[in-house]
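Support case: user asked for a sample of complex input and structure output to validate their parser. Sending the pair below.
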Amino acid sequence: MHQPFRLRNYSVFDIGKSHEYFNEEKNKEVLLKVAEKCYIPTNKLMLKMLKNHPRFKISYSFSGTVLEQLEKYSPETLNLFQQLADTKQVELLNETYYHSLAFIYSKTEFKQQVKLHKKKIKSLFNITPKIFRNTELIYNNELANYIESMGYKGILAEGADHILQWRSPNFLYKPKTTKNIKLLLKNYKLSDDIAFRFSNKGWKEWPLTVPKFGKWINAVNGNGNCVNLFMDYETFGEHQWKDTGIFKFLDALPAELLKHPDNNFKTPSELVKEYDPVAELDIHNLISWADVERDLSAWLGNHMQKSAIEYIYQLEKGIKKSKNKELIEDWRKLQTSDHFYYMCTKWFNDGDVHKYFNPYDSPYDSFIAFMNIINDLKLRLGKRQKK
Amino acid sequence: MFGWEFPPFSSGGLGTACFGLTKGLKNHNVDVTFVMPKKFDDMKAEFVELISADCSGGKIAVNSPIIAYMTPEEYNEKVLSSNNPNKSSIYGKNLFAEVLRYAKKAAIIAKKYPHDVIHAHDWLTYKAGIEAKKASGKPLVIHVHATEFDRTGGNGVNQFVYDIEREGMEMADKIIAVSNFTKNKIIYNYGVNPDKITVVHNAVEFTNSKYNHNFVIKETDKVVLFLGRVTLQKGPDYFIQAAKKALELDPIIKFIVAGAGVMLRQTIEKAAELGIADKVLFTGFINPNEVDKLYKIADLYVMPSVSEPFGITPLEAMRNNVPVLISKQSGVSEVLNHCLKVDFWDIDSMVNKMLGVLKYEALTNTLKHHASIEIQKFNWDEPAKKCLEVYNKTLSGDTVG
């Protein structure tokens, strides 16, 4: 679950004059809308489901930025999440606080953000996460190794076809170059059946009924240990609207799956405890869960994206040396992956999903606003350094 | 096909469009007889049969005082007040008389040259199209590249021009508009049935530029280019205002205003008044052969048009690997993705985007990269195909829809 701090349309005339980078109004508006359509109704439903089915389990991965926004704009939603976390049937995962791509550019910053996130989860939910998932399921061997060294027992990644080839995502694996950490793979086919295809009338399996989905899950028995369904929380009520029947589907799912004697629900920590890896997986190139390519091209695919993110991490030393809280916080909020996603030109011709999520008219406009802000940030930093 | 100009003797997009379109039509096995008011010795198109409207009179005039986009006032000023020795013998008393004279000749040509469809470009030729239709009885397609509302910005619409435009639209069997932007103008300002109008977006010619990047104003200078007629429609005043603001933030930019037009003097004076005369270079009328040279030195092409029915120049700039900033009040903005867009009146946003390109190399690179791919889809084959479909509809008697 994630919401970014979207930027204002920060113009060249603002540089050196205004340090307000974030569009508070817009961020509030989006959060309240999503809370109303998704977070609140889904949380209430989950609470009911967890109560009715003591064997039902769910895990959440929140970005630090969405938690901040919930604290600020929708305490009601946050309170419901806290109730969920208290049920003992819910696991919370660890990620980078700012939903960033820091791992690729700065290990120091990455580690600090993971720790910040851990602290935030502890303070809001009194839980210490044991399992890590990186932003957008970005992953490689090196990350698994790094995360293992930070004391984690498990890590999540996309069950991408080009990695798995003939292998199944429905087992645990051991990342190459690691000792004990276990790799959990998202079953993207079954996840996307719900997240993307649920209401698609052009899909040959539409309408997706609970018994039908149950049958697909049951088919894994004898041929796998787990089915990791991983999706945007906004699937419920926001991407798939209420009138598609998504809430009814969700509500009926636990009972249907529990009908089969071999089925059960597990949190990632339980899986890691109970199952051994079946094989070693060697993933040295970075993968993600995005687009068909399952690579990083949605965030780092063009010159603008690469140049913008490089500017950010070039400032790291100076920003941190300043020890100025506002400066550091603004700098970190600019690391959120969404800012680079808005600059993506990959699908700009067809105007599909990227356009839907983009608050700007064009990727070029988002780049200009971002770079103007970087310039102002540099000025602020320069002024402090002179003092 | 009735036109008013043809390369190399053209002053704007109309001639370029006619040239590209006839070439595209030829590829679809359509024979085009292109009729123009004057015949020049070195008109280059080999794929169209060029007829000057003056042929019928046995007279071939070498110097023509008439250019497309001429306003009635300009005609009076330039043609009638000049010491042109031919003025009384060849040309009409004013632009309208000339338009009518062209129309009369059109009727004679229509009888003499066999054809299936009549295609007339912009108001200057609508009368010719109508007369030709009367003479041959063949269907008439009019092609709207601009309306009087674009040229005047809606203020001071010339009633005579409006009447001809409206008559043309009414008499036409089919109307081709260069954009949805223009289609809407035709519907709302001329009350035409939308079903009669087909939108055919323009394209751009692919030619290899002859110039190397060796004509440089100054190594360190960044160059922002305006290229087009210096008229109200093209928004040169907004360009100058943006230049002023941009220079306040970055004084090493150079601005070029390339083109002539009724607002040229006013625009030069404005630049002087704002104290940026040394930063804004005016070229005056630009020979089409020189155009590519300008693109080669430009770091950004800006088309701040107030009302642009289509706008081929951004496509030419893209073809020359120049990043493009265009006004949203243009037909071409309907079909372009890989450029920057602003409302023509939003000077601050224009400056913001201008400086974005000049300051951030990555933006220029990304724009260029994608534009070079996007531009490929703008070849004249597609519009020609669409025109042919319109012709076929008129020939099958389907006059509406």
